[in-house]
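Researcher: We're teaching a course module on how sequence relates to structure. For the next exercise, students receive a sequence and then see the predicted structure as tokens, so they can try to spot secondary structure elements on their own. Here is the exercise chain.
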Amino acid sequence: MQNKYNHYFNFFLFSGLACFSYFFMVLYSDLSPQHQHLLISFWAFLLVVFVFNALGFSIMLINEWQKRSYQFLVKRKNQLMINCILMAGLLFLLNYLLFSIVKVLLEIPSPFALKGAGIRMIFVVWLVEMVIVSLTMVANFYRQLIVLHEKANKLEESAIKAQYVALQNQLNPHFLFNNLNTLISEIEYNPGNAVVFTQRLSEVYRYILQSQQEGLVTLSSELTFLKSFIFLHQVRLGDCIFVDNKIDPSLLEKKIPSFTLQLLTENVIKHNIINSDNPMTIHLNTTEDRKMLVVSNQIRLKQNVVKSGTGLRNLSSRYKLMNNRDIIVENDSTCFTVKIPLLNE
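Model: And here is the predicted structure for the students to work with:
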């Protein structure tokens, strides 16, 4: 609905510019009264309105195409300046061609030559048009800033929620109790492994603290974190949970939201039966077009486990806010799969 009103507004804006340019040139140029009478016709006026709207909407389409990048206004200041200069040049050229075509139709000698009066008239029309267009561009720029500000606030709020959930999952008493009990057991029965367990536990907490303020992290850093995270569960549950990583190394610098793999791994451990008789393998791969990370696991649901879906909904919201894309969740009763877009920035 908003786009519809914007189109109407732009149509009236370009039509208004056409009316002003048309009547100013016809009534205040150095044309004779006879020539002015010939030019004031419905079809001539309609043609001018059509030309102005065609040019105006063409420029708008180019601007919309360029602004598809989320940070266009921030990272492409030079391109924005070029667009303004291009707009000014096109308006001046359009006024000149309009005036010249009028003189051609009236068979006035040297139609493309401009005298002092003609130059002043075109320059005045151009200045008025530039003021109107500039004010419109400022209004659009302000609206765009408001949209970006609201989007950034939503993204920040979503990121904070995700970080809180991740910290809550790791720092809650249940998690600490399990890992401390495991550490005590390892110290008693396997002191060498207890040292490694302590190191991996510290790596998990270090990553959590370092990534709290990061909206996006590299796939490489998430996989390193996952390795330590899985090790803790392997020691606690027994050697019965594994990660089958088939991700192409060339994709390791791609980015995903922080704590994504931890969230998905927690879901697997929380909802499925995992023990020495029922080992679990979490498969990591990519789609054929290498644009999405695929995380899948066999389904062996625990009894009486409530499925909230909060983590996946939160992850989906973060993706929609970041680049208007979404995750894909597939469940065929035997295999649970989540597909996550890989981002460049």
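Model: If you want an answer key for the exercise: Residues 69-74 have pLDDT under 50 and may be disordered. The CA atoms of residues 100 and 307 lie 72 Å apart.
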